[in-house]
């Protein structure tokens, strides 16, 4: 079936019901990830990305095809599935594009060639591929990682989180934010093995996936600087150096996005426009969220409107914003007791 996404017409097999990965025969295409690919295109255009990107787990090739056509970037394609490789070759022809297509385990290719950007988009956890992806990057290159093992990362399956990411997450208003930070922190620790440091360009959670874009800098000093940002977090969301029985992490404690890299999004792309604008408003804020439901329960009043509490906090000089990680979370540098007082008087 001929499908369309962005400026690309391509063949593929739609998975799920536009929501999650689902189970399919044929070569996987998930329309729910259009937002993720739209953002990839917008980001690469914003940073004026030049060089060669490896679409390491291409499936139909839709991501790499869009980057090649909509960002005018050279893309290498790779998939270990021969059916996918055949389809990518067809899809390149269909769009009058030329590229190298590898039928390989991406981990092998990443030990043979160096890239300016590597995109890792596996089924489930990216943890096994991060070290080899780092290996295949030039200094200053960009590593893009998708993770769909949300149950493990968010701490629903704590053993799996620890097994894959050597970190602990727990159920809380901040578990999605901490999941992204655990993924980023794990990558910083893997990079340090290779004397590389990370610079966060942009990270987010949406629907059923986490995604992080990192710039990689070679050098022991850069590695040490990044490692210094990977810490534990106490149950009241203070950054601490060691784990305790109820702490979270280790996780990345720096910014989750850098405002200067955030692209402008066309307001017609409503979901992505909202996501990037909220991310813009919260990315300079502190780590962890205040839970509006719990605060209201403690004050024994009906839950006030989130946005009115945000405005009240701002009017008192505090940082306050909504969050992409939870509609009922408030990112603020005001203490819990200040939030309780503001809610009581709202
Ligand atoms: C989630 S799909 C990729 C989706 C694609 N990036 C997109 O945007 O539509 C995962 C793909 O990775 C491929 N794959 C999984 N492990 C791989 C590996 N180690 N090396 C190369 N390809 C791999 C699978 O065959 C599958 O086609």
From TrEMBL:
Coiled-coil region: none
Gene Ontology molecular functions: tRNA (guanine(26)-N2)-dimethyltransferase activity; tRNA binding
Protein name: tRNA (guanine(26)-N(2))-dimethyltransferase
PROSITE patterns in UniProt: SAM_MT_TRM1
Family: Belongs to the class I-like SAM-binding methyltransferase superfamily. Trm1 family.
Enzyme Commission number(s) of this protein: 2.1.1.216
UniProt KW Translocase keyword: no
Leader sequence residues: none
Biological-process GO terms, alphabetical: tRNA N2-guanine methylation
